[in-house]
Amino acid sequence: MEFQIGDSGVTAPKGFLAAGGSAGIKKGNTRDLAMICSNVPCAAAGTFTTNLVKAAPVKWDQHIVYECPKAQAVVINSGIANACTGEEGLENCRKTAEAAAEVLHVPEDAVLVASTGVIGQQLPVDKIEAGVAKLAPFLSGTREAAATAAKAIMTTDTKPKEVSVSFPVGGKTVTIGGMCKGSGMIHPNMCTMLSFLTTDAAISKQLLQKALSTVIADTYNMISVDGDTSTNDTVLLLANGLAENPEITEEGEDYQNFVRALFEINRVLAKKIAGDGEGATALFEVRMIHVDTVENAKILAKSVITSNLTKAAIFGHDANWGRILCAMGYSGVTFDPEKVDLYFESAAGKIQIIRDGVAVDYSEEEATRILSEKEVTAIADVKTGDAEATAWGCDLTYDYVKINADYRS
């Protein structure tokens, strides 16, 4: 099955509207509030942070996704995370949902909420309530509306992150659209990342959740910027059925095609997050091949992308391969270092750096040229089996420290 990949966002599927604007949460007249709404009630699925410290909106959304039959709208604010805010934080989630429910004419328990920004501050809920009322008339299914919403959820992101994919299901064209944000506090097991996915597919709530949970493991859970797992990580998926395909209720061919498309859209979004890491100049991809198990391949790949020494070497365009082998060695996975082959690859070419654990006679100048591209891949052949895995990260730059040293002030 072929996918048609596009750069549209959450309004690409039929029946979804979006808007973005300023509620006055951030300093200046900066976009800081976004809304997504479906014309009809949706099946909803979600995955959330594994951090024991969970923000109020995570708790609110978990209740709706797991216990309520339908959802229809999402309200997202940037600037304040509404994390570590106690009962007042949860009450502010309810007030936000209540405000949206009133202007959108949907049930309060059909409104999901999400927040991103500084931890520990209470939301200016009066501003959010007013912002919701102000944004509602601008909800639209246009490409521009999706783009505006994607910009409104950004914090330290340097660019909005959107994608769409269309594919056939039962003689109908089904579309999935998505937008996400994330740049720092990004680490496997979801990251400070928020992702919002919409689809016009007709699919049961049970299979929608299963599909989302399935693809998370090899997309968002395989990226890292700085090793910190956020309090607010949330991925939400709404399906309104307006494509009018035969409802997907069994794990047959239609379901498998849906999963493949959902994987592709989340893989693209995950890579956009990793490549836009705070201060980053390069997307750093790590592929582990010929490993004994998929789980071990994942552990090895994650160990390399989270190595600060390796990330610094990528920033310096330095083929310091010892750091990669070192990170593999402390990962906890058993392998023979004297059998590992390592390659660097980018748009500028591919070069082998080590063979059987020992450096080959390679050109440092050529290696530097390959490592100077905006997307760089390290490929490690472990020679213990047939499994493989890919993880994504970024280089570690001076600007990462600058950004995070004065983030609150």
UniProtKB/TrEMBL annotation:
Gene Ontology annotations of biological process type: L-arginine biosynthetic process; ornithine biosynthetic process
The keyword Cytoplasm appears for this protein: yes
Pfam family, one: ArgJ
Residues the record marks as site: Involved in the stabilization of negative charge on the oxyanion by the formation of the oxyanion hole: T116, G117
InterPro entries linked: Arg_biosynth_ArgJ, ArgJ-like_dom_sf, ArgJ_beta_C
Binding annotation for substrate: T155, K181, T192, E278, N404, S409
GO molecular function, one term: L-glutamate N-acetyltransferase activity, acting on acetyl-L-ornithine as donor
UniProt main location, coarse: cytoplasm
This protein's record includes keyword Amino-acid biosynthesis: yes
Gene Ontology cellular component terms for the protein in this record: cytoplasm
Localization per record: Cytoplasm
Catalytic site positions: T192
Pathway(s) annotated for this protein in UniProt: Amino-acid biosynthesis; L-arginine biosynthesis; L-ornithine and N-acetyl-L-glutamate from L-glutamate and N(2)-acetyl-L-ornithine (cyclic): step 1/1; Amino-acid biosynthesis; L-arginine biosynthesis; N(2)-acetyl-L-ornithine from L-glutamate: step 1/4
Keywords: Acyltransferase, Amino-acid biosynthesis, Arginine biosynthesis, Autocatalytic cleavage, Cytoplasm, Multifunctional enzyme, Transferase
Top-rank taxon, per record: Bacteria
Catalysis: reaction(s): N(2)-acetyl-L-ornithine + L-glutamate = N-acetyl-L-glutamate + L-ornithine; L-glutamate + acetyl-CoA = N-acetyl-L-glutamate + CoA + H(+)
EC number: 2.3.1.35, 2.3.1.1
Function, in words: Catalyzes two activities which are involved in the cyclic version of arginine biosynthesis: the synthesis of N-acetylglutamate from glutamate and acetyl-CoA as the acetyl donor, and of ornithine by transacetylation between N(2)-acetylornithine and glutamate.
Family indicated by similarity: Belongs to the ArgJ family.
Assembly: Heterotetramer of two alpha and two beta chains.
Name the UniProt record assigns to this protein: Arginine biosynthesis bifunctional protein ArgJ
Species for this entry: Bilifractor porci
